[in-house]
Amino acid sequence: MARSAYGYMAMWYRKIGREVHERLMRKILIEWRRAPSIVRVERPFRLEKARKLGYKAKQGVVVVRVRLMRGPFNRRRPDSGRRPKRMGVYGITTWKSWRQVAEERAARRYPNLEVLNSYWVADDGVYRYYEVILVDCNQPTVRADPLYSGICGREVPSRRITRRLRERQRKLIEHLKKTLLPKLKGGQ
Fold first, then answer.
1. Was domain 5-184 assigned CATH 3.40.1120.10?
2. Sheet of strand 127-135, all strands in order from the earlier edge strand to the far edge
3. What is the rounded distance in angstroms from the CA atom of residue 63 to the CA atom of residue 55?
4. Taking a C-beta distance cutoff of 8 angstroms, is the pair 126, 70 a contact?
5. Which residue from 43, 46, 30 is spatially nearest to 130, judged by alpha carbons?
6. What are the domain boundaries of the chain?
7. Measured between alpha carbons, how far is 62 from 44 in angstroms, rounded to an integer?
8. Which of 23, 83, 96, 179 is the right S-S partner for 100, CB 3.0 to 4.6 Å?
9. How far apart are CA 13 and CA 24, in angstroms?
10. Which contacts of 49-55 are long-range, i.e. CB under 8 A and separated by 24 or more positions?
């Protein structure tokens, strides 16, 4: 069966073990590490993934690369005295995924744009990189497109990301209600 161009792009991206791919990614990651943490990019790095998630090369659709620190969630060590076990520093995990954190940072940087979707791009020893697709709802070309009507249908932008209207965020909240609320109320 014949593959499409996007199929070949995805296949190339999955083959991490190849020497050429590794050398190329190393050069790219060195450049990205020196760049600011949130950068607007001209075109997506993983075009097949971006297209699958709703990206179109038109005015009003923007791609932003976000750099996040790798490793566990670190909290500041408290100044006042207590025994080390009760410091609340180690073993703490975030309830949000890193992808969600990347989306929120991009939304904060570009307040006039709405978050459409995001995807993982790369990891290195220190950072992880995500690309976030943002949409300008005031752009006439975006308003006319039926694909973006769910986001840009209203007169006033909804700021979906901050109000937890994304699918993953809703699922996370439902899961936490099922698992944590009974424990907090004195259940098992």
1. yes
2. 38-41, 61-69, 127-135, 114-123
3. 8
4. yes
5. 46
6. 5-184
7. 9
8. 96
9. 11
10. 49/10, 49/119, 50/119, 50/131, 50/133, 51/6, 52/6, 53/116, 53/117, 53/118, 53/119, 53/133, 54/116, 54/117, 54/133, 54/147, 54/148, 55/116, 55/133
Pairing of strands 38-41, 127-135: unpaired
Structure confidence by residue, pLDDT tens digits, 18-58: 777 788 888 999 999 999 999 999 999 999 899 988 999 99
How far is Cα 87 from Cα 81, in angstroms, rounded to an integer?
A: 9
The answer to whether the beta carbons of residues 73 and 92 sit under 8 Å apart is yes
**How many Å apart are CA 110 and CA 39, to the nearest integer?**
11
Beta bridge partners of 129: 67, 122
User: What is the spatial distance between Cα 9 and Cα 71, in angstroms, rounded to a whole number?
Assistant: 29
Dump pLDDT digits (tens) for 95-143. 778 898 899 999 999 998 999 899 999 998 899 999 999 999 889 998 8
